[in-house]
Design a protein that fits this description.
The structure holds three protein chains of three kinds. By secondary structure, chain A is α/β, with parallel strands linked by helices. Chain A has helices at residues 11-19, 27-35, 49-54, 65-80, 100-113, 126-141; strands at residues 2-6, 23-25, 83-88, 117-121. Chain B is of the alpha+beta class. Helices cover 44% and strands 16% of the residues of chain B. Chain B contains five helices and four strands; from the N terminus they run βαββαβααα. The longest helix of chain B is centred in the C-terminal third of the chain and has 22 residues, at 92-113. Chain B is elongated, with a radius of gyration of 22 Å. Chain C is of the alpha/beta class. In chain C, strand 8 (203-208), helix 8 and strand 9 (222-223) form a beta-alpha-beta unit. In chain C, helix 10 runs antiparallel to helix 13 (332-350). The chains are: A alpha/beta, B alpha+beta, C alpha/beta. Chains in contact: A-B, A-C, B-C. The A-C interface holds A 41-45, 47-49, 51-53, 62-70, 73, 92-95, 97-102 and C 10-19, 22, 39, 53-58, 60, 83-86, 88-89, 113-116.
């Protein structure tokens, strides 16, 4: 199954989803499509004005361009996801997930789709880590093929 | 995702005794059609999808819960994201932060592998009711 | 030498504008760099700075600013930029600009972008950053020497000043038409006034929109953007070469607010997307009221803007408001005052929020001849600006002054 991970660039979530036999949907894959497109030369990421305009599907013109640009890339992933795992308030979220407004909107759009969605707490000790990993394993195991 | 190339980050948990050098030498032996670049946290690898599946299977089998991995959007050494060109890329701090957390994840996975699959989900803490807060405040009068 | 401009930004990559920013920097011989910071430094920086925005990229900006302030990362100038309409980012952008100014001597410029940002919009700003860094010695020049001419090719008017031994000996202006033709006309008039011939002029300095064309045509020794040139002209004219000042230049097409330290800008903003906030609005008002533009200010100082309140800043709807007010029996004076007040208020709301206004305030440019606008700026800022003699010639004076540095 296709699992949307949030933060969508998280290595821990990507690794765990894959480890437990599912396909993680990540920003890295979407960015790869962009950067490998030799017809566009807009480094570093080849995100263009057209992309930001596409983001209007998810947020109005009064919303900052950075939010719309992100949604243009994440939106289709959210729509393609069969399930989602969200880390609640991770202490890290830089780079692709640097905008809190975009992160909030992504979470909302996932919930609006009413797909199976697991929210876990970021661990601060071994006990909590076991809970997080255990919850993820059980959640993914319960999704089927 | 593009079929042409897959680039992945392999990151060694700080609690592991595996070194970047050992990891690089190991992945080199798995397949010829693979580019490898050693980094401070492990290595970057790049190949076609078929080779990558083979490599990842061996890496998972060999290093189990000590090496973690995710795909990377940019090709290896891409000047658009190369640190030497501009300074650190925006996601660098993210990787650093996740690296610090890997020992906890490693130990949780080890635990599960050992058959200890029980865990407890802590109850959500609720704020004190206004009545309780009032009582406490009045006690300090 | 490549000038290193440290970028503190949020949203540029996903707005598709990072490429434009880098292109603008490259075209003026600069390179965009990101100060290196570790995850631990981010945590530390937030504690120290005392402001924890929710967006991590803004947190990263703070850590990068602290790295610059601590001298851990080497850069020559700072460009702070975030998405337009993001309130959280606007707060961080402004506070970081202040922090950089208080803790470093690096010139800094702030900008809020939309996805439609093009490199050309940033050129003047980037060029000014590079000039401030690479022409430090030239910008320190306080006296004009020899016989030099400055040409300022603006969007509304073209100005020429001829200077000899630190004195203005000839000056002329005209409305801008063909760039070279207008400049040639004002140059001839200024030469006639000065009693000099072209071959006697030892150096030319050009600035303004047409600076490159004029630079080629007159083989100018100095071809420089108007932010640094106008600043030098303003402090020379106002005799405020030492210490701090704020220069307000409300132009025909764009407005500039520049803070200077010893005549050299350390922070500036430029605005130019709304005609309602520019000299053009006053021109349109004068035309609609059928009064000569040079008399609009005289009317305005006698009026009271409160009597002719406008409901819109827009150059179309705002002027409609004024005409309606006039129809309702209000005086020309009140309406002219309202027009001036409207421009002053917008400059305050748009440009002056991005700089820390330092006293004295020097108001320059063609619009500074409008007494009503000067009064309105004074009212809005609570402090009457200084308007030096020949205040409309700042660019030309700056050009003549700085070009003498090449003799």
């Amino acid at each position: 199954m296709k699992i949307f991970i949030d933060p969508p660039n998280s290595m821990i979530l990507f690794d765990l989803v894959e480890r437990f036999g599912h396909e993680p949907l990540s920003t890295m894959a979407v960015i790869q499509e962009k950067v490998d497109n030799i017809e566009v030369d807009m480094p570093p990421m080849n995100v263009t004005l057209d992309d930001v305009v596409k983001g209007l599907k998810y947020a109005g013109v009064e919303v900052p361009s950075g939010v719309r640009g992100r949604m243009a890339l994440w939106g289709p992933m959210i729509e393609a996801a069969d399930a989602a795992i969200i880390i609640d308030e991770p202490p890290f979220s830089f780079g692709c997930v640097g905008c809190d407004r975009s992160n909030e909107l992504a979470k909302y759009l996932l919930k609006r789709r009413k797909i199976p969605c697991l929210t876990v707490k970021y661990p601060s000790n071994e006990e909590e880590a076991k809970t997080m990993v255990g919850q993820i394993k059980d959640f993914l195991g319960g999704l089927g093929e | 995702m593009s079929e042409a190339r897959i680039t992945r980050i392999l990151m060694i948990s700080p609690d592991s005794s595996v070194t970047s050098d050992q990891l690089v030498r190991k992945v080199h032996t798995i397949d010829d059609g693979l580019s490898v670049k050693e980094t401070c946290y492990g290595c970057l690898i790049e190949s076609d999808e078929k080779t990558m599946s083979k490599v990842m299977a061996v890496v998972r089998e060999t290093y189990h819960n000590e090496v973690f991995s995710k795909v990377r959007g940019f090709p290896m050494g891409d000047p658009r994201r190369c640190r030497a060109q501009h300074g650190t890329r925006p996601g660098y701090s993210q990787l650093e932060a996740e690296w610090e957390c890997l020992p906890l994840i490693q130990s949780a996975l080890d635990d599960i592998d050992a058959g200890n699959t029980e865990y407890t989900v802590p109850e959500e803490k609720k704020p004190l009711s206004v009545r309780q807060m009032k009582e406490i405040s009045e006690a300090f009068r | 030498m490549t000038i290193r401009i440290a970028e503190l930004s949020c949203g540029t990559e996903y707005s598709g504008v990072q490429f434009e920013i880098e292109s603008a920097a490259r075209s003026v011989g600069a390179k965009i760099v990101y100060p290196d910071v570790s995850y631990d430094q981010v945590k530390e920086a937030l504690d120290r700075f005392g402001f924890t925005p929710k967006s991590p990229q803004l947190q990263l900006m703070i850590a990068r600013a602290i790295s610059l302030a601590d001298g851990k990362y080497d850069a020559d100038a700072v460009f702070i930029t975030t998405c337009f309409r993001c309130a959280e980012a606007a707060l961080v952008r402004n506070e970081l600009r202040r922090f950089i100014q208080e803790n470093t001597r690096l010139p800094v410029v702030t900008y809020s972008f939309t996805e439609r940002l093009k490199a050309s919009q940033l050129l003047t700003r980037m060029e000014a950053l590079v000039t401030i860094v690479s022409r430090k010695e030239l910008l320190a020049r306080e006296r004009q020497t020899g016989l030099t001419a400055g040409l300022d090719s603006g969007s509304s008017t073209t100005k020429c000043v001829i200077m000899e031994n630190n004195k203005i000996i000839g000056k002329a202006w005209t409305t801008s038409g063909d760039v070279v033709q207008s400049a040639t006309q004002v140059l001839n008039e200024a030469m006639e006034m000065a009693g000099v011939e072209l071959k006697q002029i030892e150096a030319f300095g050009t600035t303004g929109y047409g600076r490159f064309t004029l630079g080629d045509h007159f083989k100018a020794k100095l071809v420089q953007e108007e932010l640094t040139v106008n600043s030098k002209g303003a402090v020379w004219l106002a005799n405020r070469q030492k210490g701090e000042a704020t220069i307000i230049d409300i132009g025909g097409m764009d407005n500039k607010a520049i803070t200077v330290r010893d005549g050299v800008p350390d922070n500036f903003t430029m605005g130019g997307i709304c005609a309602g906030a520019s000299g053009r609005f006053l021109e349109m008002t004068a035309k609609r009221l059928k009064v000569p533009i040079d008399q609009l200010g005289d009317y305005a100082v006698k009026g009271n803007w409160v009597n002719a309140k406008m409901n819109s800043y827009c150059s179309v709807f705002g002027i409609q408001d004024l005409v309606t007010t006039l129809g309702a029996g209000k005086t020309f004076e009140d309406v002219a005052a309202a027009a001036c007040h409207s421009v002053a208020e917008q400059v305050y709301e748009q440009q002056l929020q991005e700089v820390d206004v330092r006293r004295p305030i020097i108001q320059v440019g063609g619009t500074s001849l409008n007494k009503g606008l000067v009064k309105a700026i004074g009212e809005v800022l609570g402090d009457e600006p200084i308007v030096p003699a020949d205040s409309q010639y700042i660019g030309a004076v700056g050009g003549a002054l700085l070009s003498s540095g090449f003799l």
